[in-house]
TrEMBL record:
Alphabetic keyword roster: Signal
Residue stretches making up the Neutral/alkaline non-lysosomal ceramidase N-terminal domain: 56-267
Signal sequence, start to end: 1-22
Organism from which the protein derives: Sporothrix eucalyptigena
Domain of life: Eukaryota
The protein's name: Neutral/alkaline non-lysosomal ceramidase N-terminal domain-containing protein
Amino acid sequence: MRSSFFLPLATLLLAWISPTSAIRNASSSGLMVGTARIDITPYPNPHWLPLNEFPHEKLHVRAIVYESNGVRGAFVNCELAFIQDGIYKTANKLVAEALNTSLANVLVSITHAHSAGPAGVTNANQYGNAAVRNYTSLGLAAVEAATLAVNNMQPAKVGYNTGEAYFNVNRDALDPLTRRWTQAANLSGPIDREVQVLTFLGLDNIPIAVYTSYGMHPVNSYLSGFTTGDWPAAMMRWIETSMSVNDTFVAIYSQQASGDVNPLLRRPGTNNLASISSVPITGFELVQECIEEPVRDGYTPFVRPDDHYIRQLFQELEAQGIMMGEIVMQIMSQTTDYDLNPTIWAAQETVSCPGRKRLDNAREGVAGVYTSGPNFNVTTGAVGIGDIVLVTVGGEIFTRIGWRIKNETTMAKTMIVTMTNGQPSGYIPDALSFSQETFQVLGTSLMPGACAELNITSSLVSMVASYKATLG
Ligand SMILES: *[C@@H]1O[C@H](CO)[C@@H](O)[C@H](O)[C@H]1NC(C)=O
Ligand SMILES: *[C@@H]1O[C@H](CO)[C@@H](O)[C@H](O)[C@H]1NC(C)=O
Ligand SMILES: *[C@@H]1O[C@H](CO)[C@@H](O)[C@H](O)[C@H]1NC(C)=O
Ligand SMILES: *[C@@H]1O[C@H](CO)[C@@H](O)[C@H](O)[C@H]1NC(C)=O
Ligand SMILES: *[C@@H]1O[C@H](CO)[C@@H](O)[C@H](O)[C@H]1NC(C)=O
Ligand SMILES: *[C@@H]1O[C@H](CO)[C@@H](O)[C@H](O)[C@H]1NC(C)=O
Ligand SMILES: *[C@@H]1O[C@H](CO)[C@@H](O)[C@H](O)[C@H]1NC(C)=O
Ligand SMILES: *[C@@H]1O[C@H](CO)[C@@H](O)[C@H](O)[C@H]1NC(C)=O
């Protein structure tokens, strides 16, 4: 289903003559951009108090609201590990209603930081599916951020540029001892190092906001027991506090293709888990999976890790975030081509592929047992902003799908944003990766094959082509 957004002249006139108090008039031309950041950090667990030493210990919902040529839209980003499909859809709808725009113009995404939830629990990844801090739902927090952002819109210009960061690694590997598939760094597996950066400046050239994407799971804090937004939180706060002394700048990170991508460096996170389960820590890099498994599966009591190791982990997350932030700011600095009056266009679709139901529950390394299941539905979208287009996937695609989208898009400035506006049950491997018995492949309810890879790519590529056609 496609719902392209065309703005009739009447809308423009109506918006001009009937403003509401919460929302500014749509400007007849010229880009306007506003930003906001609200705190959604869970209230502290008195039995498992935070260190309160690192910026990444706070979680936020951020919004960048844009408007040009009478069309308004928003990039909303939530520092959460995982939210259900319906939560994305509700937040998307509420923000679109608040901004009086189409669903397709609103991108609701998450950073996927694996400990972005309450402290002292192994299921922190449920945070966001119910109340967040003092908001009764994520949708209401998203509306609050979008409304605050609308109310500080200012004339702006937008530019796009890319660079590279070498912090990520393919995470699907054959265990050298068992010769079975496991989660570990695979230095020869597919990996995409591209960092994509959309920069918004005021007309005075003072930076207002940046929207970035890069493929890398924020998993080093997984099961750490502490609340943290992991390296993306450190990155966003570093950029924000670097770009404006009064902290009005907003930086957003969203996932690119990351279903098969981890950080290359995981040693401090592994040590932190080892300190929970009393595995001897040597100082050398330990094998994560065999240390994570007993904690993940509850074979070992979940206790507060040694402060020494959580502090080292948090220092590493801060360091990763700072270095990623520096790369983003270098890419921003080298962005030269800015547009003051971009066309805005958006569309959203759902692609569908055969699904399956799992009948067993092995983690990895063996074949799974399945029966057929309901179709696997993936939300796709595109937002055109002048000669830039953001293509979105509601799910966790593998690297080769990202490459395929980049290969086949007909617009040079195509930014990929995933984990946006929807989440099917499971990962979205490319056709080749289905032969690997990894936890992502075994766990997905997508039937093996090329359907998702082909359908997602062709949906995005055809939306990009439709947008390009409107540019003439
Ligand atoms: C919202 O947009 C619709 C058209 O899309 C327009 O008819 C209506 O007047 C707008 N409402 C406000 C409050 O701007
Ligand atoms: C919206 O436009 C009307 C009519 O031009 C004007 O009176 C009003 O001040 C504007 N409101 C805002 C918030 O800019
Ligand atoms: C909700 O939490 C935010 C962030 O902590 C705070 O600024 C705001 O005042 C709170 N609102 C209410 C109604 O408590
Ligand atoms: C890395 O992955 C590739 C497939 O992408 C596989 O052929 C290779 O054996 C893997 N290497 C290791 C060390 O796991
Ligand atoms: C914050 O600083 C920016 C310049 O960095 C300035 O444009 C803006 O007006 C300041 N905002 C506030 C609320 O002081
Ligand atoms: C996706 O793929 C399936 C099977 O290959 C096909 O039947 C379906 O129409 C495709 N298109 C969409 C938009 O889902
Ligand atoms: C996918 O969408 C189809 C058609 O709307 C529906 O029948 C099916 O149940 C959906 N699949 C899931 C897993 O919700
Ligand atoms: C992308 O294009 C390159 C060069 O044209 C090709 O080598 C590669 O196989 C393509 N990758 C995908 C995933 O389509």
